[in-house]
Each structure stands twice: as structure tokens, then as C-alpha cells.
From TrEMBL:
<protein>
    <recommendedName>
        <fullName>VOC domain-containing protein</fullName>
    </recommendedName>
</protein>
<feature type="domain" description="VOC">
    <location>
        <begin position="7"/>
        <end position="128"/>
    </location>
</feature>
<dbReference type="Pfam" id="PF00903">
    <property type="entry name" value="Glyoxalase"/>
</dbReference>
<dbReference type="InterPro" id="IPR029068">
    <property type="entry name" value="Glyas_Bleomycin-R_OHBP_Dase"/>
</dbReference>
<dbReference type="InterPro" id="IPR004360">
    <property type="entry name" value="Glyas_Fos-R_dOase_dom"/>
</dbReference>
<dbReference type="InterPro" id="IPR037523">
    <property type="entry name" value="VOC_core"/>
</dbReference>
């Protein structure tokens, strides 16, 4: 019996140079930048979409991740939930297990619930509704994880694609 997970939605990779890594993943894998994330005004991550596989890579500046040697405080795996109700059910199940989940939280990309494993790694269960735009959108968060706004133009300056 499963727990209502329909797949893996994203993989987070910690990087030392966000612009260089964004260009590399974009160009090598043919990905499209669809999100940027800033915390208290500082750019710390981007999301790249594989439009064929409907899968994303999240690149996060490793300087923004506490405990980078052991991944504490990061979300290396985001599990896809089939519905908003599934996220709510997962949160309830986690609370019933006394695991103190964070959420459900609704943001511009849908609804999620986070739970921290024994090593401090955050596991996220996320439902992305069919009507969420996959065009570019920057999302600004406060240090406590609350969404404080969005923006339409990328802040990260990357060189143009080779051959363009």
C-alpha cells in the first residue's frame, strides 16, 4: 500500500556558482528556466524544466543551505502528489505519526507539505494543479518561508545559448 505519491516532481542540486550551473544544465539538458527564488532579496535558486518529461531540476546556491556537508535543511527530493486533497491527507497522516509537518502551504505553484527526516533533510510532498503556468515567474520568500511576492523578469544574468 502506497502513501498517495504519484512520482518525483523535482530534484534539488546544490551548486557553487548559480549562473554557471544554470547555463550548464540549461544547455546540456535542453532545460528551460521557469522560476527563480530569492530570500530577503538575495537570489538563491532557479528551477529548470524538462518540457518533454515534465520534470524539474532545482539549482540552489550551496552557500544558502545550512549544513551543506550533510544536506540538513535542504529538499533534495520533492514527491508529486496527485491532488490537493492528497497533500492534506499526507499532512494529517504525518501529524498522526507525531512528525510535526509544515503545511499544507499554498504558493504560486500549488500546495505542499514538508516533513524533516531524522538527519534533518526535508522531504516535500507537492501537488501542482494543471492550470499552473510553466512560463517564467520569480518568487520571493521571507526567511521563515512565507511567500512575499512574485516578479516577472529574471534577475539571474546568464549568457545567451550557444549558437543564438
Amino acid at each position: 500500500m502506497g502513501v498517495g505519491v504519484s512520482g518525483i516532481a523535482a530534484v534539488t542540486i546544490l551548486v557553487s556558482d548559480l549562473a554557471r550551473s544554470t547555463r550548464w544544465y540549461r544547455d546540456v539538458l535542453g532545460l528551460t528556466v521557469i522560476r527563480e527564488f530569492a530570500v530577503d532579496g538575495a537570489l538563491w535558486g532557479v528551477v529548470l524544466l524538462d518540457t518533454d518529461a515534465n520534470f524539474v531540476f532545482v539549482l540552489q546556491d550551496k552557500g544558502t543551505a545550512p549544513g551543506v556537508q550533510d544536506l540538513r535543511g535542504t529538499r533534495p527530493v520533492v514527491l508529486a502528489a496527485p491532488s490537493h486533497a492528497s497533500v492534506e491527507n499526507t499532512a494529517e497522516r504525518l501529524r498522526d505519526m507525531a512528525l510535526s509537518p509544515r503545511g499544507p502551504v499554498t504558493d504560486p505553484d500549488g500546495t505542499f507539505v514538508d516533513v524533516t527526516d531524522p538527519d534533518g533533510i526535508i522531504l516535500r510532498f507537492r501537488h501542482v494543479p494543471d492550470d499552473v503556468s510553466l512560463g517564467f515567474q520569480g518568487v520571493s520568500y521571507s526567511a521563515d518561508g512565507s511567500v512575499v511576492g512574485t516578479y516577472d523578469s529574471p534577475r539571474l544574468q546568464t549568457p545567451p545559448r550557444d549558437g543564438s
